[in-house]
Amino acid sequence: MQKQIYKVPYSKSFMEFILPETMHGTVIVSHHGEPLEDVPAAIHEAVIHPVGSKPLRELARRGARVCIVFTDITRSCPDYLLVPVILAELQKADVNDEDITLLCATGMHRVSTPAEKIAKLGADIVNRFKVIDNEPQNPQVLENLGVIQGNVTVNMHRAVVDADLVIATGIVEPHQYAGYSGGNKTVAIGAAGESFIAYTHGPAFVDHPHTRLGRIEGNPFQEAVIEVARRTKLTFIVNVVLDDEKRVLCVQAGEPSLAFQELVSFAKSIYEVPILKQYDIAIGGVGYPKDTNLYQASRAASYLFFAPIPVVRKGGVMIIPARCEEGAGSGVGEQRFLAAMRDAPNIQFILEDARQNGYPPGQQRAFVMAKVLEQVSVVIVGSEFPDLVAACKMIPATTMNGAFAVAEKKLGKSCDVLVVPHSLLTLPIIGGGQPGKEAG
């Protein structure tokens, strides 16, 4: 019998492997959606016939200051397709070029490079318009929007606060805290100051039972970002849903919450996949751009863990192929994650310290991963910085066979394995429906 060859994304290519004979594999992928044939035309149609809003050209006017908040390089949102349509509509409204600012929603991530800005927007737009990054720690560019939920100060980039009209792009996909990303989040988190980002990523939010992947209703993170977005002039969004190959399946534009709700309904039909049980081992594919650093790549493990029911049983193993050519990541948040993981004596210390003392933005990923590592082991395969992986209390492996050897030592030779090639775009739901495709 010919052995099954599995394939998961790794950097800009793939990693192929065969399971040991004693391991039984099940593959799950998101449901098929038909890619849009003419994406620019679909975007234009969405913008001129928006959900719950007047068309963009009727919202804008000559002399108005406009801020377009777009996603950074860690998101696969096709801003190079979305933003030109938005700008064309603003031009029809006679908005001056000099009154338009494009803000890269980096949140607490590192600033975007000139090459990344061009990749996201195109050289013509970067050369023609003012394009800037969020600066969450620079009080000179932040404005105070008051307090939220009693005592948390909300600061927002001045380009957003001073605008008469704020527009945001986004990608609607499963998200660790928001349930689904996109909507109000691009502005509320991506253009915010450190204090609000810290609040929404703090231990109280992460520990909350409704802060789960796929959950929107009753999610305190969603409630917070909606409230903050309402304090800005965020009036219009253009968001997409993508498939595993980053092709556009759906696009909606309009009033932020209403357009987002429509996209979430569609996204659930694509991303949420039933499985029958918990597994001994899960293999989560990531791929570029998320696997460029450990901070982002580790999302594969936490997404599988923070599904409505953890995909891997307690004591099991998660295997994540990730090149991590940028190490842990160079941004402030990524470096805080690294320091917290590396410097703590053990996993329990990370959890107890976070719950007692809180943590700054970025370090929440250490708290999240500590919650994962308290229950399961995480093996990172193919990292260019294996010593850093080990320092972060995960297990480095050069090859998939090396990872399987680690798993066999912990679990024994007979194991059920769940293979999730696109783990950030596939949300396994235990119970009901048709399970994934099994292979020996």
Question: If you had to describe this structure to a student in words, what would you say it looks like?
Answer:
The relative contact order is 0.17. The protein is of the alpha/beta class and 440 residues long. The protein is globular. The strands form 6 sheets. It has a 7-stranded mixed sheet. It has 2 domains: 189 residues, LarA, C-terminal domain (2-enoyl-CoA Hydratase, Chain A, domain 1), CATH 3.90.226.30; 232 residues, Rossmann fold, CATH 3.40.50. The chain contains 18 helices and 21 strands. The protein starts with 5 loop residues before the first strand and ends with a strand. The C terminus is likely disordered.
The count of β-strands is: 21
Oligomer: single chain
Q: Outline, from the CA principal axes?
A: globular
Beta-strand fraction estimate: 25-35%
Report the end-to-end length measured between terminal Cα atoms. Answer: 10 Å
> Could you tell me the radius of gyration in angstroms?
21 Å
Give the low-confidence spans: 435-440
Proportion of helical residues: 25-40%
State the name of the first-level CATH class of the largest domain: Alpha Beta
Within the CATH hierarchy, at the fold level, what is the topology of the largest domain? Rossmann fold
CATH superfamily of the largest domain: LarA, N-terminal domain
Strand adjacency order, main sheet: 18-17-16-15-19-3-21
Features:
about 25% strand; Rossmann fold; 2-enoyl-CoA Hydratase, Chain A, domain 1; alpha/beta; about 450 residues; six-stranded mixed sheet; disordered C terminus; globular; 2 domains; seven-stranded mixed sheet
